[in-house]
Amino acid sequence: MEEEQVADKSDKSKGNLLEESLVQLRCHFTWELLVEDTELPDLENRILDEIDFLDTRYNVGIHNLLAYVKHLKGQNQEALGSLREAEALIQQEQAAQSEARSLVTWGNYAWLHHRMGRPQEAQAYLDKVEDACKNLGASSRYSVQCPQMDCEEGWALLKCGGK
Predict the structure, then answer these.
(1) Is Transcription regulation a UniProt keyword of this protein (predicted)?
(2) What's the topology of domain 20-160?
(3) What distances in angstroms separate CA 16 from CA 20, 22, 52, 69, 90, one per listed residue?
(4) In Å, how far are 3, 12, 42, 112, 115 from 7, measured between CA atoms?
(5) Phi, psi for residue 36 in degrees, rounded to 5
(6) How far apart are the C-alpha atoms of 31 and 49, rounded to whole Å?
(7) What are φ and ψ of residue 148, in 5° steps?
(8) What whole-number distance in Å separates Cα of residue 108 and Cα of residue 122?
């Protein structure tokens, strides 16, 4: 019985450390976007229309936002698909920019896996973000100031509203 209690406390401690790290990420899950449940279908339709009708082939942000909306609707597998699409678009870009462009996507992956009860996968994406931040010379383990992230955050706030 004691071993179970120790293991339970250890799991809770790891979960708390994971949460403390996740809140430091710059991504849709931390930007305090104001999206009401009643607005989700309309927002999703507008995003899908933009994907279909505008030249957004290289717009990673729209796929990241779609992933967040899918998660809010409880469609986590579809959200993972949107994040995979964002990653594919990043790979088409210049390699020099791919690490900075991946930070929001990796942050969204980390949060999504965490919410899906997959702490190992969440930690793997946190590790990717941490490595990228080191490579980009950031002073923070999980966040970096760069125009790519500012642009994506601003775009998401314009689409959804936020604090």
Answers:
(1) no
(2) 1.25.40
(3) 6, 10, 40, 25, 31
(4) 6, 9, 45, 25, 21
(5) -80, 150
(6) 23
(7) -60, -45
(8) 9
pLDDT in tens, 39-97: 999 999 999 998 888 876 668 999 999 999 999 999 999 999 999 999 998 888 766 67
Under the phi-then-psi rule, with left for phi > 0, alpha for psi from -120 to 50, and beta for the rest, what region is 32?
left
Predicted model pTM: 0.88
* 3-state secondary structure (DSSP) of residue 162: strand
Distances (CA, A) of 98 to 24, 37, 86: 21, 33, 11
Please tell me the predicted confidence (pLDDT) of residue 148. Answer: 86
CA dihedral sign of residues 12, 14, 17, 19: negative
Query: Three-state SS for 84?
Result: helix
Q: What is the pLDDT of residues 111-137, one digit of tens each?
A: 999 999 999 999 999 999 999 999 999
Q: CB of 63 within 8 A of CB of 89?
A: yes
- The reported pLDDT for the residue numbered 2 is 54
Range 76-80, long-range pairs (CB < 8 A, 24+ positions): 76/112, 76/115, 76/116, 79/112, 80/109, 80/112
Tokens of 94: 């210049």
